[in-house]
Give the backbone structure.
Amino acid sequence: MIGVRKIGRPMDLKERSYLVEVARGLAISMAHFARNVVKQDEMPTIQYPEEKRVLPERFRGRHRLTQREDGTPRCVACFCCQTACPADCISIEATEREDGYEKVPARFDLNILRCVFCGLCVEACPCDAIRMDTGKYELSGDDRGSLIYDLNTLLKD
Ligand code: SF4
Ligand code: SF4
């Protein structure tokens, strides 16, 4: 087989010069180049960011917190997501609701820099209060602080 050499056998002159392999490499690159020029619509790459890839329905994008009909967070600050998170990204501070029956998060911070998008927080939530269905994946910021999403940011979507 071309390009495969038995281990332990010294390289011959052709192999030591690398010329054949360099020529083979160039030929492969030129063949790809020519094919991409002729068949541009078959290229696997896209013109990102102008062109966006269509994501599968089950794609795990940035998190969001869901709301009840009255606009309050569905979250009851049970800490299940925080406990289930293997990357320690979620930090919650609980307070009591006005009706005194349930808790609500006074603070809900999600550090997306730590997140590994495993979805365990979503699985752990007993109230369907946290989802990863925003489809957002362009998660960049000017500083680290802007990538720690707070309650209001997570409720916005
Ligand atoms: S997706 Fe995984 S790593 Fe990210 S916040 Fe949820 S549990 Fe943590
Ligand atoms: S998002 Fe769900 S799991 Fe997390 S604290 Fe709120 S209710 Fe509990």
Summary: The first strand starts at residue 64 and ends at 65. The chain has two domains: 13-42, 64-156.
